[in-house]
Amino acid sequence: MKQLPKFFSPYLLLLFFSVLVSAQDNKDQRYIFFLHNAYIEQNPLNVPHPEYGKAEYNEILASFKKDNFIVFSEIRKKNTNAAEYAQKIVKQIKKLIKDGVSPNKITVIGTSKGGYIAQYTSTYLANPDVNFVFIGCFRDVDIEQAPEINFCGNILTIYEKSDVYGVSAIKRKETSKLKINHFKEIELNTGLKHGFLYKALDLWIIPCKKWANGNYDLN
Question: Residue 92: which H helix or E strand, with range?
């Protein structure tokens, strides 16, 4: 029997096993790893953020699943180390690729802290054909504070004009030493500040779906 990564929750173990089987049967299937923000790490889903309201984690997952993506996601333990967790995601992705999934059919989507985990995943995986979406998770100070991050892959970044915690990541693109096949940015103007990524908004979810489907022009 194939050895499965030890860090999976029981649910993800079952899902991952079924994916390994289906990967051989459906070469067109696409996969999403969704990495949530830090607030969900620290608080139950039924506890709304005092400013941003309910974190619509389940609604976000449901939207991706509705469009026939196989979605890997779990609520992380409190105070998860972003770089260490990224190494676990890398192992999952490499396992999928080894079992027949094309890299360009795998997309890692992260919001806020989850977006930083996605950035580390991009760096450690160093596979230019895998898709990534970084949402509300870059500040100019990151160049100095996290110089080890290098974008690699097909990169879409989404940020909100009123959000001080996420701005254009062009500077990171320019400093990255790994291969970037496609790069695109979307600036939203919802006025929701960092709260935009708490919501299952089509404004950012639809571009994620297009990117995950290989539509790098987002038409």
Answer: helix 82-98
